[in-house]
């Protein structure tokens, strides 16, 4: 019997670096709960909640949502899963958000997907998403089984409004100025692990091996 302590991880990387895909694989292989700030915001927009309506223009313009809103949103989700191991994707995106997270939880590991900006610009223009689940496909290297439709639900795929070339440039700029300092923050705490590459399928085995050294895969786990 393997009893695991609670493991708390963050995944970082520029928009389009493969965080969503790698997070889904981590969640499946190691049983961590996947919390995606972008998916939570998009679900709010889709459901036309007050928060969703307020945040939509920020997101569509490639700007970050306000720190206090994001910290409250994510921390309240995390409180609801206090006894679970989790992986947060898309939060924290600023040093102020990392401090808010730190005040509530200590993070065991921060996985950073270090993918060159040129690769990302190219990739985002061929990215298609199942908006409700956040599942992503790429017409070049990870196409859906039926073009234009989600493999799991069969529902139509869409291009995200914020994947246009101008918005992508703005999101990468926001990443450089506001999110890169978060990497320094975690480096100084000794929890940052960097995985570099241009293809998710080549980066993944390294992430998987690293997590194997920290965690047991789900099949050995006893809940
Ligand atoms: P993502 O799917 O993670 O790329 O997030 C899509 C958009 O949601 C971002 O471009 C931001 O506008 C917003 N967003 C997501 N997470 C955060 C966050 N932690 N702080 C501020 N804005 C965020």
Fill in the keyword field for this structure.
alpha/beta; binds adenosine monophosphate; Rossmann fold; 8 helices; 223 residues; two-stranded antiparallel sheet; 5-stranded parallel β-sheet
In short:
The protein is α/β, with parallel strands linked by helices. It has helices spanning 19-30, 37-46, 50-60, 67-79, 95-104, 117-125, 165-189, 200-214; strands at residues 8-12, 33-36, 86-89, 109-114, 127-130, 135-138, 192-196.
CATH level-four homologous superfamily name:
P-loop containing nucleotide triphosphate hydrolases
Q: How many distinct helices? A: 8
Basic shape: globular
**Could you say how many structural domains there are in total?**
1
Strand content: 5-15%
What is the architecture at the second tier of CATH?
A: 3-Layer(aba) Sandwich
Cα distance, first to last residue?
Answer: 10 Å
Q: Find the count of extended strands (DSSP E, 2+ residues).
A: 7
- Extract low-pLDDT stretches: none
CATH topology, by name, is Rossmann fold
Q: Give the helices and strands as they follow along the chain.
A: EHEHHHEHEHEEHEH
Helix content: 40-55%
The biggest sheet, with number of strands, parallel, antiparallel or mixed sense and barrel status, is: 5 strands, parallel
Give me the Rg, rounded.
Answer: 17 Å
Pfam family, one: ADK_lid
Family: Belongs to the adenylate kinase family. AK3 subfamily.
Subunit structure: Monomer.
Protein name: GTP:AMP phosphotransferase AK3, mitochondrial
């Amino acid at each position: 019997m393997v009893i695991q302590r609670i493991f708390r991880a963050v995944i970082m990387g520029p928009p389009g670096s493969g965080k969503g895909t790698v997070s889904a694989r981590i969640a499946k292989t190691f049983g961590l709960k996947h919390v995606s700030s972008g998916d939570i915001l998009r679900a709010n927009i889709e459901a036309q909640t007050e928060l969703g309506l307020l945040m939509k223009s920020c997101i569509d313009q490639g700007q970050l949502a306000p720190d206090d809103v994001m910290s409250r949103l994510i921390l309240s989700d995390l409180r609801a899963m206090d006894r679970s191991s989790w992986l947060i994707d898309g939060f924290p995106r600023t040093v102020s958000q990392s401090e808010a997270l730190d005040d509530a939880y200590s993070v065991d590991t921060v996985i950073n997907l270090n993918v060159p900006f040129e690769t990302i610009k190219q990739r985002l223009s061929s990215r298609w998403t199942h908006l409700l689940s956040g599942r992503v496909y790429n017409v070049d290297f990870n196409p859906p089984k039926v073009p234009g439709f989600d493999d799991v639900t069969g529902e139509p795929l869409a291009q995200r409004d914020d994947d246009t070339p101008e918005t992508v440039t703005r999101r990468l700029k926001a990443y450089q100025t506001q999110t890169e300092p978060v990497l320094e923050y975690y480096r100084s705490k000794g929890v940052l692990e960097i995985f570099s590459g241009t293809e998710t399928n080549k980066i993944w085995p390294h992430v998987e091996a690293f997590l194997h050294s920290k965690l047991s895969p789900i099949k050995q786990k006893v809940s």
